[in-house]
């Protein structure tokens, strides 16, 4: 960190040392001049609860799984959590498997194309070494099981097997008809055969040999036809048996085992669609309280819901919002207030929200305002007009918290992402680039004390001057086409997974 | 082929298909597992087939489910009860799979086998299995374990019993909510096998811990188990331990818990005895009837009759009836609908005076409800009121309600009321029916919706059955026959349908003299659909009428239709002729 000395000192006083991020791995790196296929662009990232697995979904409807390699025994999760990792180790992942989760569809009734793009992935409780996860596109949620399946080799059958195998389907079909006749006449067999007490010695069971195993993904359940609008979130309940799915206007509650019915628990659809002023943008269950969930809206508010109160939770139990000062209100105020993502911290006490300009940290016991606000895009304020013109202002950036709840992170343009310290007194604010050299941009972006609300326009101008290489034809430093929307923090380690277009970059500190 | 002699071929194939690539064939083989076992003999079944199945645990869930079910009845094929324990290992593996329905079936089969096993075999094989599952690495095994304790416990030694109780209580304190849920839902079964001394100490402790669980889903299951547990305890113990809990639950923060209480409460009344019922359960129930959450009131309203049956009439009138009155004008239509479906049952409980004085106004207001389901629910249970107060008091308000439902703009509502017409007819009697409802029944024959017309035709048949052919001859047949000249061919078709349904009820004479000529006449209709339906109806009349009539009237008509320009008419006419031919030959 060239310019970081002073800042590090400040942070030290504050109590936490800013993290020094290092590149760890990249999957699907772009070679120079390589054209990115639309279908390869990553659209969802999620670590499982243990951090032993990572899943990404892409616009082509595929889900790719990665597994951690730096731990010896992935099986004993309980021991793992208790174990202290040596400091020099950092999480490393390897490609595990991938499967096609969703296919493009066409809704003939509504004449609508349904994209295969994976909007969200959520991990479920694993069992017997199999992994379970939910994936969703705009309309349909699917429950997947990924397991090791032994490759079976059947040999030594009663009926001549070599012949059967050689003739393939023909013999197979003749066998099946025989057996069907046989089963249809099942009652007769008892008359046809008198079973000797010792059985027939000539019969024997087929011998199965298996040498290797294959990873297989099977879709176990499909939760469909419950959403009229596009699904933006899915979230598991701590009870291990239910989950919610949220679209623009409604939130539905499902039981994982029942795919043909769901309960509508939130409905914000007005009687007349012309009265619509606010849509649901994201929803998440509380990590431990099974009856609490939060959802965010396009008007910048977060509502906390207590499912115990009523079957249809149209009235919230708590409302979190921060009105922009009337003086700074503009045409864009409402648009940039829209919350694109909310996440609960592991402790269940705090919530993180991301709107276009900021990250906000909330205490669920304090609905008067956020405990902290981190400026992410304040320098873009003069450019809102341009951003509106090219639709960038509607980009939905995700956010995440570290497992210990001490830091938060979110993405930005030019494949940059920002990490802020959110513990008491921390001034940590790091800007990193999703590349093999994450600290390259350090110092170019304003890394200022997070609670400062001073104008940053000067700094933005400074950046323009400093960075020549990244200037595009319009003279803009920030490339709005390369945006880092999706990123995830490892649940137990300081490790971040970031999706830059089709590449998955992993960093550690 | 080389190794198997010809007659054994089918069984050989069946065995081979245990490992076929086609899941349907594997499934078939598993379903015939008993045949395979008999072909192999008991000894080889034990030594080869069962171990083979034990390894077969990564098959598809459908196959595993079938296997779990088959193994439950497999004792005869492994050589009887003394060898039953060999069946445990494959079922033990099935108890650990991820799919809930497979695990549940495996547990069920294990219980079935365990309940037949000899006591020392249970100690040697079954109890260790339960302990292994309870200590399983994955939650799936521990979930299954909870459902096996009630089989294992009775035959265990004193020391083992203590151990089993403590394992069960550990399962109730698990991290995984799935395991706690399974422990909560199996607590009643396990408690039934535990000695009464430990019941009050250990089991009640477990019960109390579970009632404090912070997962709503666990507490829900505890509520469900309350009545079972309550019945095991002496009334005074039940009052001491269960009653406070259920009263507490009736004011739980979570509406889902209160919903469960509302469903279960009446079952507890017997267990606690009359006095605590009066002092504690009735007030709790009244709370639930007035709950803030409509879902809870729906559940409570649905149990109002069952609850009142347990109480003395005075108590019911004094405490419950006022709530019922409130519910009859509840803001939620579903609450009113739930109430309407059971409230009729209160009449016998309250007796005639109270019913007329108190319940009748409620019936009447529900009969005028704006929501059709509410009215329908009242009408569907009309027979119960009739027994108590007679229909006269009701009939004045009944008729407008029926007429309104009969003309409801939702065809499903119209359909529902048609279904109740025969019941109403039997309750109201011929006189009332003739005056008021007869016209409605005819009107439905010309409904816009096919299902209604079809149901209306059926209704006429049931009415004819109820009141007899003579009545039908007077009140149904003339009107029906009149409609056969309706200008809309769809309505004419309905009449043909009605005729074919009425003919068997009306008998030979009326069919020949009144119905058949109309049908024959219709064969000259200009619409082909009518004509081929005539062919079908004629065929249905064949068994009713004499052979001479068939020869003289039906056959010539069919022959004529058989030369119709329309291909469909010809087809059905020829079908008819052929079957007449067959009937003639066979008779």
Describe the structure.
- The complex is a heterodimer of chains A (509) and B (587).
- Chain A is mainly beta.
- Chain A has a domain at 322-440 and 474-508: YVTN repeat-like/Quinoprotein amine dehydrogenase (Methylamine Dehydrogenase, Chain H), CATH 2.130.10.
- Helices cover 13% and strands 38% of the residues of chain A.
- Chain A has a four-stranded antiparallel β-sheet, with no helix packed on it. Chain A has a four-stranded antiparallel β-sheet with strand order 2-3-4-5, with no helix packed on it. Chain A has a four-stranded antiparallel β-sheet with strand order 8-9-10-11, with no helix packed on it.
- In chain A, helix 3 crosses helix 4 (169-184).
- Chain A is globular.
- Mean pLDDT of chain A is 81; it is low at 1-15, 161-191 and 444-476.
- Chain B is mainly alpha-helical.
- Among the domains of chain B are: 214-292, no CATH class; 509-586, Leucine-rich Repeat Variant (Alpha Horseshoe).
- In chain B, helix 4 (61-71) packs parallel to helix 6 (100-114), helix 14 (235-249) runs antiparallel to helix 15 and helix 33 runs antiparallel to helix 34.
- Chain B is flat and about 90 Å long.
- At the A-B interface, strand 10, helix 4 and helix 5 of A face helix 1, helix 3 and helix 11 of B.
- Chain A: It comes from Durio zibethinus (Durian).
- Chain A: Residues 446-456 have a biased composition (Low complexity).
- Chain A: This is Serine/threonine-protein phosphatase 2A 55 kDa regulatory subunit B.
- Chain A: Pfam families: WD40.
- Chain A: The B regulatory subunit may modulate substrate selectivity and catalytic activity, and may also direct the localization of the catalytic enzyme to a particular subcellular compartment.
- Chain B: One of its GO terms (cellular component) is cytosol.
